[in-house]
Each structure stands twice: as C-alpha cells, then as structure tokens.
Amino acid sequence: MMRLWMGISLLMVACGGDTSDDEPIETPSQKAELTGASTVAAGLSTTCGIKTDGELLCWGGDLYGTLGRGPTEEGIAGQPKLAASIASTLKFKEVALVETACAVTQDGALYCWGPNDQGQLGVEGVETELISLGGFFDKPVSKSPVEVFPSGVGHVGVGTSHVCASFDNGDLKCWGQAKYGAGGLIDDIENGAAPADLEFDGATVAQIELGGDASCVLTESGEVYCWGSNFIGLLGVPDDRMNPDHMDCAGGGALAIRYCTTKPQLVPLPAPARKLDVTNACACALLENDELHCWGSPVCGFGVESDLAKIPPTKVSAPTPVQDMAVTGESVCVISGDKLSCAGYGYHGLTGSFEDSATFVEIEGYPAAPTSLAGGQDFMCATLEDSRTACFGANDSWQAGVRAPADAESGNLKSFSLTAPVVVEVQP
User: Which intervals of the chain form a coiled coil (predicted)?
Assistant: First the structure.
C-alpha cells in the first residue's frame, strides 16, 4: 500500500502536481502565515488544520476534491492550493484524512468529502462526480462536505478506503472497504456504504487511527484495540489459528498469509497509552510513562536494517522523555525537550537529509519549539509554541503548505521535497 500511495503521488505530479507556473508567485511581502491552528491532520497529499475558534482550513493536493472547497472553486482542476477555509459556516473540533477527509463539528455532526469509490462517504446514494484519470484511478468524489451524521459523534478516523467513528452513546461504527474487516465487515464483493456497528465492550473511545487494512482505537483508560488485517502484525498480536476471532482472509487455507477479524483485539502494552498513530505499515503508541512502543513493519522506528515484523509492540529507542510522536509513511518522529527528531527512510527528506537512518536524527530549522505532530504520507507537520504550523518532507502537491520549488523536476519527487521545516502559508 505504501508503494501504491507513491504511485498516486507520481501520477499527481504528472497531472499537474508541479503548478508553480499556474499562479503568480507571491513576493515575500504578500505571504501570509497560518497561525492559531490548535490541531493539524495530514493525509496522502493534503493537510488540514483547525484553529482555536473552530475554523477548518485545508491545503495541498486536490486531485480528488480532498480540499473540500466545492465544484465552483476557481483554478485548474486538481491544482494544489495554499491553506484556505472550508465549510465556513461550521465550527469543527476534529479532522482526519487520507484522500477522503472527515471532520467532526463542535456540535457532534460528522461531515465527509473526497473519494467515495469504496463507500467512504457513508451515505448511500450520495451525489458525486467522476474524476477520470484512467482505470484504477477513476473515482467518484464529492468536492463539498456531505453530512454523514447530524449529531452524537465523538471522534473520527480515516483510512485508505474506510472510515470509523465513535459516538457519545458508546457505539463504534465503520464503513467503506470491507475486504479485510477494517471497515467492520468481511466481504470480498460488497463495500459498506452504510455504517456497520462493531462488537466493542463500550469503553469510551479517546482516539481513532486507521491504516489501509487495519483499524485501531485508544480508550480514555489508555487501552489500545485493533482489528482488520493482521498482515505484518498490525493488530499487535500473533496470528492464532485456534482463536475463533481470527479468520483466514487470504483464501489459502493452511497457506494463508493474512488473518483478519472484525472484533477489536487488545494490544499488549506495558503501560496505558496517551496517543496512538497508525499507518499502512505500522502502529505506534506513546505511553503515559513517556515511552514509545511500536508494532508492525520494522521501518517505523525500529531501524531500517531489519525486515522482520515486530509482534508484540516493541519499545523504540527514541530521545526521552517523548512529549509527542507521529508516524509517517515509513518514518517516525518524536518531540523531546522541545526538539524534533526522526528515524526511518529519508527519501523525502524526513531524516533532515535524503539518507535513511536507523537512529533518531534531530531536525533543525524550526522557527519556534514544536509542540505537537501530525504525520502524512512521507511528510510531517508540527504546531509550534508561537501558534504557527510548519511542515517538511514531501511537497509535490504543496502538502507542506508552500508552493513547490520553481526548479522542481516533474516526476522527480525528491526535487519537490523539503529537508527542513517551512511555515505553512495562507492563500491570499
């Protein structure tokens, strides 16, 4: 799935990701910086932030309507854009995205927009338009927010092709791709446009994090539960042929390479967790004792030498104490002592260079101390103590919040990438 996402990024570059000639370049005196974002969420090639007053702004790639600005948005179709407000009549408290984006209002309503090829918008018969890029890349989308639930939603998580939400009454519902159970169903044919209830013990959900084929939640008591595909150990527990909750989802009997479940499995952690992050390849939990534990693919925080899945969760040798953390495509970053450090693959500059690093490398160049992190696909964003937001890594679709370099080479993602953080700009 990681390589699929990279393929889509390359397609976006070929279809107009380098749009530095499409709009006049601003002079420094014209630039306005994003300030006041209390929370930031990063997706495939788009980023969103919610300001302290509930205003939602998004920036970056818009190939599939992920910016949510509606069909009448001026400019070239699919053209990347700087940060601007969406759904200005609504006030939000939480946002999550990959290509599809969903946000919870302060009144508990849930809105989603973007691709609906797997039923991610959660509403049967919703009006969409077809974005046609050829074959696999053709997708029906809604460029405007669609109301999925009018009230009662506590938290939302968005995966590659599915969405999950928790509710004030304790319910946990998922919808979208159903093949491996991450969306609440196991069905090789039909995807679940109608939200399905998961069998959950009623613990209050504090956070939802979804990958490609696996889903996880963090409860208010610090427990982590995961379900869906256990490929490369993303459920945090070994496959168990004798466990009735574990089903063969690969159709290969004794030769099956993928087990899955729709029943949330308790991840064995040595202490309660206070933050969770999940990608297609791995998951990490920041514990209340400030330790970082990860599971799944070894590329996320375990060092790049090993290719063995880590089950159960393994303590990561990160700078301590860890104040915040986030996982991006194949790297993990932490804040410790007001400094940000990253480990993993460096192709997009996420180690402060384009070199892989099995140990954590300090990222230099922040204009103020970072306070919280959000990881997208091969890029990382941080809110700063002076209320600004800064990002680095992949920027082929302006997902880091600034225009791509004028000398970037179409098809060469590295030439679009940033090895040092830049402050997110607001569209004039």
Answer: none
